[in-house]
From TrEMBL:
UniProt keyword terms in alphabetical order: Cell membrane, Membrane, Transmembrane, Transmembrane helix
Major facilitator superfamily (MFS) profile domain boundaries: 56-441
Name the UniProt record assigns to this protein: Membrane protein
GO-annotated cellular components: plasma membrane
Subcellular location per the Swiss-Prot or TrEMBL entry: Cell membrane
Membrane topology type: Multi-pass membrane protein
InterPro entries cross-referenced by the UniProt entry: MFS, MFS_dom, MFS_Efflux_Transporters, MFS_trans_sf
Pfam families: MFS_1
Primary location group: membrane
Amino acid sequence: MTPGGNSAERPARSLRGEWRGCDQRPRLDALPFLSRRSTLAADAEERGPAEVMKVGIACLAGAYVLSQFYRAFLAVLTPDLGRDLGATAGDLAWASGLWFLAFAAMQIPVGAALDRMGPRRTVASVLGLAGGGGALLFALAQTPGQVMLAMALIGAGCSPVLMAAYVIFARVYPPAIFATLAGMTLGLGSLGNVLSAAPLAALVGAVGWRAALGGLAAVTLLVAALLWLAVTDPPRGPDGPTRGSVLDLLRMRALWPILLMMFAGYGPAASLRGLWAGPFARDLHGADAGVIGWVTLAMGLAMVAGNFAYGPADRLFGTRKWVVWAGNAVVLAALLLLAANPGASLGRATLLLAVAGFCGSAFPLIMAHARAFVPPHLTGRGVTLVNMFGIGGAGLMQFASRPIHGAFADPTQAYRALFLFFAAVVALGLLAYLLARDRAD
């Protein structure tokens, strides 16, 4: 073949020249079943990195809907799992906690994979294998222990989804809009919170929880395949240091108050929405599965709205630190009011849970605050480290909440102690965050 005579080689050379290492994957577009990826790659030459990323980002936002769904759906399944498998509230606390701990444990390897392999291969393979497999195991579970194992697998599978989007935001878009993009992704993804409430209750009532989980396993595998086809890895960034590890980040004193605020700020709202809101409404207010669905729906919608509200707040108020601090102070107040009279009307309790959900959705702004201190070549490790503190905190709180709740025979006293525990965690986080350095891009 003469030089330049192979038409299949010219687009390949052009792409290598245009992207300059943006996408290091081997060229497979000669295969007919991957022709769609070939078309997307060719379009990238004309549209530029930010433009071509949009399809992949939209798919990642859709995958994050699944992630949010999976971390919150146990509250609605409480009556069914108790009846069919003998699962207690304590068993489900362990199962939910394992989801968060598996998710958190994956953050360090996921961060390294995002920096070295890129988002596409990382998110598609982990979500498909661990997430889809875990959902299938859940559908077939016969004991509470199998539910716990399934939740751990699903947590691991969901671990790279949001961080893959954040790596793309950090490398492709201006730093000043990172929090807005992060909040929009969280807000859209938090629709999974909504779907895991009343809609899931209706679906389970119609087809049963096993069929519902089997369908979710199929959806998870399809989403993973779509991510493999649609996501494009971002450019590596400007020349500079290329070596480093998470230990370099842990040596940065400026990050520690932010990490502690992420630990304390995310866990309480996530634990209440994903685990305790259902048993609380049932035990103290006699709610059935349908009513539990509406209570958790209210809190889920509030969390969606909160993510959208926090996103642009740093540019609106000119500060990240004090927006986060003020919002979590309101969470503290809501938790103390719930603790003061947990047996009051269900309407009052639902309103306070919604307030805690809205104001406790500062995750995107805390992430943006931390990212401002992270060197560009450690972006993947940086965002996953912060995420590990948030998700790991939620997991540890769910484990710790089980003996706190179980220490009291009287349900009113049990839930009072639970709300006071979450309030104490938020209060300690607020104290630590006072030492944080404010920084805006």
